[in-house]
């Protein structure tokens, strides 16, 4: 199985300068994929997830074009070849 995780520029330093993370481990859900990210790039996971394991309020995660907040959250299924995109939410007025 192979997944791609795309990072926003602010997270590059925590991924050894990479914009793209490749996961070859078997992952069935977004939560599984983020567990792999946490094991290999803990600085990335610390900035995406809270201490309780929830996605931080100002972070959005997409599988393809679907925001996981409006799907099954961390239980959103992923398939071989999927792309997970981590995006910093933009807010203000």
UniProtKB/TrEMBL annotation:
Source superkingdom: Bacteria
Annotated InterPro entries: Beta-grasp_dom_sf, Mopterin_synth/thiamin_S_b, Sulfur_Carrier/Prot_Modifier, ThiS/MoaD-like
UniProt cross-references to Gene3D superfamilies, sorted A to Z: 3.10.20.30
Record-given protein name: Thiamine S protein
Gene source species: Gemmatirosa kalamazoonensis
């Amino acid at each position: 199985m192979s997944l791609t995780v795309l990072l926003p520029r602010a997270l590059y330093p925590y991924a050894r300068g990479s914009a793209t993370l490749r996961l070859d481990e078997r992952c069935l859900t977004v939560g599984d994929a983020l567990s792999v990210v946490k094991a290999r790039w803990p600085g990335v996971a610390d900035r995406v997830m809270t201490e309780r394991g929830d996605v931080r309020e100002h972070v959005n995660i997409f599988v393809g074009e679907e925001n996981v907040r409006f799907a099954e959250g961390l239980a959103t299924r992923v398939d071989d070849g999927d792309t997970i995109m981590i995006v910093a939410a933009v807010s203000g007025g």
